[in-house]
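User: Before I run my own analysis I want an independent prediction to cross-check against. Here's the chain; please return only the structure tokens and, at the end, one sentence I can use as a sanity check.
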Amino acid sequence: MQDTHSLRQELLESIGTAADLEALEQLRVTTLGRRGRITDLMRQLGTLSPELRRSRGQDLNRLKTDVEAALEERRQAMANSALESRLLEEQVDITLPARPERRGMVHPISQTIDALTALFCEMGFTVVEGPHIETDYYNFTALNIPPEHPARQEQDTFYLPADPTGTPRVLRTHTSPVQVRVMERTTPPIRIIVPGRTFRSDHDATHSPMFHQVEGLVIDRSTHMGHLKGCLIDFCRAFFGVDDLPVRFRPSYFPFTEPSAEVDIGCTRAGGELRIGPGDDWLEILGSGMVHPRVLANCGIDPDIYQGFAFGMGIERIAMLKYGIPDLRAFYDCDLRWLRHYGFLPLRIPAIPGGIDR
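Assistant: Structure tokens:
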């Protein structure tokens, strides 16, 4: 019977020098198969004495285990090498032009954010962004939202574990906390817009747990409600491309503004089709108002010297109205057919000189 030590060396050397996966599989069959060398040696154990059979059996079991492990290790190394070679051969130069039939499209939300940015930057606004995870103070308290306000309830807000200092944290429910952060570190005058993601516990055809908002803030010594109205009227008419678009302001209530107003635009629903423009009906699109003196004081700005206005709107909502998209959930379905229908050409960047429409 062949010595297991010399057999082990022979087999491990053969495994290490196998040229490819086919040769490795052939070696496995001739070694461990039904008529393999190790299998034949195990069949011969029955001819040995009990004492010798036990020790010889242990040696053969160790040999079989070592060979199986070596075969698997070599197989894995070959597979990894083959994969690397394939990846090198099939790599794609991402700097090459896209194929016309696979042309990428800009998502309507991205296009709407670009259009909003172009319009408000023409008015002298600066774009500012902030964190998605906010403290309870920035999301609620600093904005004059009292502890008993419904917006603080868990059915409306995604609460997160407190930070290491015990400070309560939430996924921001609006982009207004960014306004607070800017007012804390900036001496007026201030003129900013804040586009970004926000999060609320809601989901249906017109609501999503994750959605986008854009908010604006102007703080100065002489800013008044007339400036707010002029800014938003110009925005609505430019964004929807209707020069004589009716715009009205209705009294409303928000904890962080006083006085507050909802903004409606004119529309008609004749023939069961919604059309934005002069008509016999109104459509609410955003909220606005003069910044509450308490909010200014919370941010270290003297409300006896400065005042200002703020406004906010849902980006998905105005995109749905502008481009005729019926269901908000389709924005996040990742359906390429939907994107090809509603999407925009990559180089069609909204700008005032070039227009903000398709």
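Sanity check: The radius of gyration is 35 Å.
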